[in-house]
Amino acid sequence: MNLETTYLGLKLSNPLIVGASPFSEEVHVACQLQDAGASAFVMRSLFEEQIDAEQRALIHLIETPAESNAEATSYFPAFAEYQLTPDRYLKQIENLRAALSIPVIASLNGCRPGGWTDYAAKMESAGASAIELNLYQLATDPALDAEQVENEMLETVSLVTAAVNIPVSVKLSPFHTSPVNFAVALERVGATGIVLFNRFYQPDFDIEQLEAKSQLKLSDPSELLLRLRWLSIISPHLRGSLSATGGIHSSDDIVKAILAGANTVQLVSVLLKHGPRVLFSLLDGLEGWMKEHEYDSINEFRGAMNLKRCADPAAFERANYVRILQSWRV
Ligand SMILES: Cc1cc2nc3c(=O)[nH]c(=O)nc-3n(C[C@H](O)[C@H](O)[C@H](O)COP(=O)(O)O)c2cc1C
After folding, report:
1. I want to staple 268 with a disulfide (CB 3.0 to 4.6 A). Which of 19, 33, 83, 117 is the partner?
2. Predicted TM-score (pTM) of this structure
3. Total domains in the fold of the chain
4. CB within 8 A of 234, min separation 6: which ones?
């Protein structure tokens, strides 16, 4: 049975990769994940704001906020509060590369064009096999229209891709008016792959203190459905790779993501909940399903349930929407 897959031009032994998370902090944990079967490793992110802060410190301007709005700057963690400083991040790429035989993908997190994007080249020099660029952004300025937001993101992606010779994937939010149009545009400016989707850690309201409460809840499998929908829609239109992240907790979830068109699946919550050894059973389950359905390789069924053969995917989706609402009886 051949579980091999190609992701961002990298040959991987199977589609299960460790998603961006604190797992990259400890080399011995990364080794356990590799030993249990992970085929690649995405590091936790280095943030635009961290790199900006360091660059300002270098020019002795650390006391001067980068933004005209000092309050906005104070929302962010202080420089020392980040788990990895930019220098330590590069050192950690080297450490992981030295200890692991699987590819190490560094993660840059930012969306505005700027000098921070040069860090991609430093990540490449430190040994990263690829870069995952997370474009996390919540547009709240009513003066900023969708085209401006996306143009800035495209410029950022082209700065990063121009700075390196290694492949760059882009981790997207689902909140684009036309995700498929944007994914194709990302390929045009040099992205080699798309990662669907960022999870938004939505604050709850504390109605006693009248405060917003930040919270980080691990995912559950219901979150996969949004990914399946967009993988199925986007995958027929891309030349590059697709990775699913969000809500993958079982081997059935992995099969579904591949049927929808994913080259790889990224796992975080399931690994945080159950530890590295869960990878053994996930791989076993994937192999068992392939055997039962007489598939010898991942490529034989990748994308088998995408919307490639659907003449009008928008009408198909809308028809399903109408039918499901009509099916409810009181
Ligand atoms: C504790 C924690 C830290 C994370 N850190 C990052 C990060 O630094 N960069 C990033 O792009 N995603 C980060 N993520 C998001 C994950 O990479 C992943 O996209 C998300 O958890 C959905 O996958 P899951 O359902 O397998 O958890 C983090 C998630 C968790 C739970």
Report:
1. 19
2. 0.92
3. 1
4. 179, 180, 183, 194, 196, 242, 261
